[in-house]
C-alpha cells in the first residue's frame, strides 16, 4: 500500500489520513483529548497544515491506525497553502465575512488595549466548541488565542545586520 511520503498528490495523502481517522471511529475532539492538543490543531494535522511533533506522533499512533510512513510524512515541515476554491465553501466564506465585518473594530480594540501590534497566527491556539444559546439553539464558539506581537521602532542600534557589519 502506498503512503503519504510516497505520493505527490496531496489529496491522496489527505484521503489516507481521513480514512485512518474514520477507521479509528474517533472525532477530532476525541483524538485531540487523547494526544493532548486542541481540536483545531488536530484537524490541521489531518489537513497537513501543521507539523506533527515526535512525542505527539507516538500518542497519535496509539489511537489512530496511521502507518509509520504516514506518521513520518506528517512530521515533515508542511507546505502551508491556500486554495482559493476554499472561499466558495459556505462556512469558510462566512468566517472571512465575519472578519471583514468585525475586523476594523477588533483592530481598534487590540490597539486600545495593547498598542500598535498584531496577533500572531504562528503562536496561536485555536479551538472550536458548540454551546447552547439562551433559546436552546446550537452556537459555535471559535477561540483564537494568539500572542500579541508589538510593532517595534526600528532603531539602527538594534539592527543586528548593521551591528554585525561594523
Structural class comes to alpha+beta
What is the 3D shape?
Answer: globular
Q: Briefly, what CATH class of the largest domain?
A: Alpha Beta
Oligomeric description of these chains: single chain
CATH architecture of the largest domain: 2-Layer Sandwich
Q: Work out the helix count.
A: 7
Set out the fold topology.
Elements (H helix, E strand, L loop, with lengths): L9 H15 L3 H8 L3 H8 L7 H10 L4 H8 L14 H25 L2 E16 L5 E13 L9 H5 L2
Antiparallel strand pairs: 1-2
Helix pairs in contact: 2-3
Structural summary, described in words:
The protein has 166 residues and is an alpha+beta fold. The chain folds into 2 domains: 7-75, lambda repressor-like DNA-binding domains (434 Repressor (Amino-terminal Domain)), CATH 1.10.260; 88-157, Cyanate lyase, C-terminal domain (Cyanate Lyase, Chain: A, domain 2), CATH 3.30.1160.10. The chain contains 7 helices and 2 strands. A two-stranded antiparallel ribbon has the order 1-2. β1 (117-132) and β2 form a beta hairpin. α2 (28-35) crosses α3. It starts with 9 loop residues before the first helix and ends with a helix. The model has no long low-confidence stretch (mean pLDDT 90).
